[in-house]
Structures are given as C-alpha cells and as structure tokens.
C-alpha cells in the first residue's frame, strides 16, 4: 500500500487554496460561507488537518464543485 | 448549501461494500489489509462513521482504485 496519505492532505489543501483564490474569496469570507473558523481553513490549506469526508464535501459544495472533482484535481498535482 | 453530507457517508459506505464484494473479500479480510478493525469497516459501510480523507484514501488504495474514482461512484448513487 502506497503511503500517499500525507501527500493527499497537502494536495487537497493546495487544491482548496487554488479554488478559493479563483473564486476571489479571502480565507475569512470562505470560512464564513462554510460556517467554520478562518484558522481552520488555513490549517486545511496547509495540509495540517486530517479532515473528514463530511468537511471536505462541505468545502467542495461551497466552492460549487463536487468532492470527486476536487479530489481528482488534488490527485493530479505532481509531487515536488 | 445542499445538505448532502449524511447522504455522502451512506453512499460512500455502499460503494465501499460493492467494491469489497467485487474483490471477493470478507469484511475481516479487507479490514486486515487496511490494518483497521472489522467492526470499523462495518460501520463505514453502513455510513455511520464520519471517516477522514486519510482513511477513505486508505480503503481506496487497498481496493486498487483512486479516492476520486471511488467518490465519483458514491456521488452517482441515486437517492432512494
């Protein structure tokens, strides 16, 4: 089993940050829409949080996309 | 924001169960491969657990698929 878990959290965070910036939303505005705290968004974007499927789905929904599409974008990010 | 969170857990659980059965694995065998407890697999399959992205990715990897593909299958399940 490939140990790609940590990488996925990092990549999901980068994807979230990219989509949020494309939507022209600050962390604070986005957090408000998601009904979660701004600092929590920051930690997700840095890949520090082991977020739940529920929370991942919530941010995807607020961004107007599906969770599968968002995770596909994350999986497509090349390792550095 | 559409309240589809609970539905997603249920649909993810059904998808997991379908893929596990297609792979001809018992819950016990699958749990062993994932290095988690059998009862935990059961609760994920019933949509009772709010699992993490990490755990969802782990079960997808063990099933030989990507998490995005697995979630796409879950999203495609029609509401009953």
Quick tags:
homodimer; 80 residues; mainly alpha; 434 Repressor (Amino-terminal Domain)
What does this structure look like?
The structure is a homodimer of 80-residue chains. Chain A is mostly helical. Chain A has one domain (5-73): Orthogonal Bundle (434 Repressor (Amino-terminal Domain)). Helix content of chain A is 68%, strand content 0%. Chain A contains 5 helices and no strands. Chain A has helices spanning 5-22, 27-34, 38-45, 53-62, 67-76. The longest helix of chain A has 18 residues, at 5-22. The radius of gyration of chain A is 12 Å and the shape is globular. The two termini of chain A are 20 Å apart.
Radius of gyration based on Cα positions of chain A:
12 Å
* Oligomer state of the chains in this structure: homodimer
Unreliably modeled segments of chain A: none
Largest sheet of chain A: none
Distance between the termini of chain A: 20 Å
Please indicate the count of domains of chain A.
Answer: 1
β-strand percent of chain A reads under 5%
Mean pLDDT score of chain A:
91
Structural class label of chain A: mainly alpha
Order of helices and strands of chain A: HHHHH
Strand elements of chain A, count? 0
Q: Helix share of residues of chain A?
A: 55-70%
Concise overview:
2 copies of one chain form a homodimer. With 80 residues, chain A is mainly α.
